[in-house]
Amino acid sequence: MTATPLAQSEASIVHIVPHASKTKPGRVLLYIILSLAVVYYAIPLLLVISTSLKTADELRSGNIFTLPQSLNFDAWTKAWLTACTGIECNGIHGNFWNSVEIVVPSVVFSILFGALTGFALSQWQSKLSRVMLLSLMLGAFIPYQVILYPLVRIFSTVGLYGTLPGIILIHIIFGLPYMTLLFFNFYQGVSPELSKAAKMDGAGFFTIFFEIMLPMSVNVLVVAIIMQATGIWNDFLLGLIFAGRDHLPITVQLNNIVNTTTGVKEYNVNMAATFLTALPPLLIYILSGRYFARGLAAGAVKG
Amino acid sequence: MFRKNLAAKLTLVPSAVVIAVCFYGTILWTFYISLTHSTMLPNYRFYGFGQYLTLLSMPRWHTAFANMLIFGSLFIAGSLVIGTTLAALLDRNVKAEGLFRVFFLYPLSMSFVVTGLAWQWLLNPTTGIEALVRSFGWESFQFNWLASPEKAIYAVSIAAIWQSSGLVMAIMLAGLRGVDSDIWRAAKIDGIPVWRSYISIVLPMLRPLILTCVILLATAVVKSYDLVVAMTGGGPGISTDVPGKFVVDLLFQRANISTAAAAAILMLLSVICALSPYVYIELKRQKR
């Protein structure tokens, strides 16, 4: 919200040097504490990966911190293809593709919808548009539980409940507040002369939006894509309620597989499924680096 | 006058409808249902505030609400302290700062379901830390928080802090980078130790950012659902139930939508309480 983009941090290091402590023991302690913190943050994921690479025999004989003896991907194959939820044994591959099918259109349309709304609000500023902006801002804080049941009723009345378009539409609706605010803030900062000049040349609202504003907003677009793609991939509640049996996202299926009460627990398979679910957002995070942090600062409202 | 900005106004119609119907209309709808005696399907005959009384007489609701307060205070305090400490440490001109940030922030990219399952595995008494320490020979070692009704909510808090303290770190680090270096120089000349400068000078300057963090974390607390479902399923028994899970269970499993609606309205009131200091400060700022 008010946070400065982290990208600036590099530049300001130069100014910070004067007050950096030069005392040796302090520096050592500093690095020790930071390294301990790294261990705290890294261990859960490392244990998930290491357990997923173990065989059933290794699981029985060792403890969680013993390293796998070899790189054994059997548990991954099983998690992908044949892990059971108690009733069915289809693994998570179907739900992985369900999630892809949900995420791609949801991201595209929620960004388009939010960007257009944000742009329109930046173009037309009046009492009414400020009311709209404020209600959007507050909308970002409403707990899903408050509006879940009426939305289920509305969606089932129009025949969208439990369908792929339905779950996509739900993500577009819930993405509207964050996306609008993100783009509104950006377009607010763009010089009004630009759209004035374009209007002089006879360009209409949509021409200005699609041919001038959207190409200018590449940085914001990247941030928006990262926010929405990771957010929608990680969604659990909306997928559980709105997606319907045939389109359950991977997060819901993962929980069904791991927390199923029937049968012997196969921890290596469970952890493989967990890792496969975490992989796409982790890759986005690693590949997008600085943009992810920027999205965090911009989309901090998302909580 | 009307023609001016016509395209912009027309573009806003769909969003205005979505906001009015899907966000605010549904709140009113839920509020009305909370005043009826509906079970599986809505029954729109007015019943009054009876559902709120029913709710307040349910031990499960008390557990859920108390858990929200326990979990919330631990989670907010823990994330703030850890996140701010890490930000202050990274602010000391640390080598490989980028690498440290990678580790502190990656949990945020992952789903609460993934976080919950990873920590369930780590804290499970038969497979996790307890079994590990016992295998070293300390047979009586106990760390079975997930299996204990009194302590399971603390285990959930640990996982939540792990997930979200990076957010505080990122926000606070950005704020610390914005602090004028003259302030540091002045503190140094006055001989004030660095840690004192942080606590007495710099952090008070960053009060708005701390407030932002608190608001974000507090609304996350009220919304919390996935983490509990994945990590404990609300158990053992109902010991880690939270309002978010209570409402969903009553709506979709117990077919008790009017009590669920009353609980949802109380969740909304909790969010409003969490937001009010922010709104108050914003309004005060705008007046100036």
From TrEMBL, chain A:
| Pfam families cross-referenced by the UniProt entry | BPD_transp_1
Q: How does it sit in the membrane?
A: Multi-pass membrane protein
Q: Where are the transmembrane segments?
A: 28-49, 102-121, 133-152, 158-184, 205-227, 269-287
Q: Which InterPro entries match?
A: MetI-like, MetI-like_sf
Keyword Calcium recorded = no
GO CC terms on record?
A: plasma membrane
- Predominant subcellular localization, coarse grouping: membrane
Under CDD domains, the record lists:
TM_PBP2 (cd06261)
Compartment(s) where it occurs, according to its Swiss-Prot or TrEMBL record: Cell membrane
Question: Biological process GO annotation list?
Answer: transmembrane transport
The residue ranges of the ABC transmembrane type-1 domain are 96-288
Q: Does the keyword Transmembrane helix apply?
A: yes
Keywords linked to the UniProt accession: Membrane, Plasmid, Transmembrane, Transmembrane helix, Transport
Instruction: Quote the SUPFAM superfamilies the UniProt record gives.
Output: MetI-like
Q: Which family does it belong to?
A: Belongs to the binding-protein-dependent transport system permease family.
The protein's name in its UniProt record:
Carbohydrate ABC transporter permease
TrEMBL record, chain B:
The ABC transmembrane type-1 domain covers which part of the protein?
A: 65-276
Regarding the membrane, this protein is recorded as:
Multi-pass membrane protein
Taking the first listed entry, what is the main subcellular location of this protein, grouped into a coarse class? membrane
Q: What are the annotated GO cellular component locations?
A: plasma membrane
Leader sequence range is none
Organism superkingdom:
Bacteria
PROSITE patterns, per the entry: ABC_TM1
Name the keywords, alphabetized.
Answer: Cell membrane, Membrane, Plasmid, Transmembrane, Transmembrane helix, Transport
Tell whether Cell wall biogenesis/degradation is among the UniProt keywords: no
State whether keyword Nuclease applies: no
| Family, as annotated | Belongs to the binding-protein-dependent transport system permease family.
Q: What is this protein called?
A: Sugar ABC transporter permease
Source organism of the structure: Rhizobium jaguaris
